[in-house]
Amino acid sequence: MPSAYFVVRATVADPAKRGAFDEWYRTEHLPDAAKAFGVSTARRFWSLSDPSLHVAMYEFADQAALDRAMGGGALKTLVAEFDRCWPEVTRTRELLVLAEEFAA
Fold first, then answer.
1. Which pLDDT band holds residue 72 (cuts at 50, 70, 90)?
2. Second label for 83, Cα 20 to 30 Å away, from 55, 63, 77, 92?
């Protein structure tokens, strides 16, 4: 079974808040989400082409594991905490399944 991914794109429009957002995500949200989802790999990115864009990617063993995480109460708890801490930050979410991996 191929790996599956949960991707969250967040727009932190106010440049003055990006440092605090980065710190909160690094020290609180990413570790909490990784633990709640039961994933071993979670990554964060800041866009080089759009400095307001933050992306978090959680890797699941397969789609079944992703489906379990998305259907459980953990996601609702994490979303509520995010909304409480960062109500002005807009987000989109995507669910992906690995189609191909190439390594040279």
1. confident
2. 63
The long-range contacts involving 79-88, CB below 8 angstroms and separated by at least 24 positions, are: 81/29, 81/32, 82/29, 85/24, 86/10, 86/12, 86/21, 86/24, 88/13, 88/14, 88/17
Question: Alpha carbon of 45 to those of 18, 19, 65: distances in Å?
Answer: 13, 13, 23
What is the set of domains in the chain, with CATH numbers? 4-97 (3.30.70.100)
Residue 66's nearest CA partner among 35, 25, 92, 97 is 97
Please give the angle made by the CA atoms of 15, 20 and 26, to the nearest 5 degrees.
120
In 3-state terms, what secondary structure has residue 28? helix
Query: For residue range 3-50, what is the model confidence (pLDDT) as tens digits?
Result: 999 999 999 999 999 999 999 999 999 999 999 999 989 999 999 999
Report pTM: 0.93
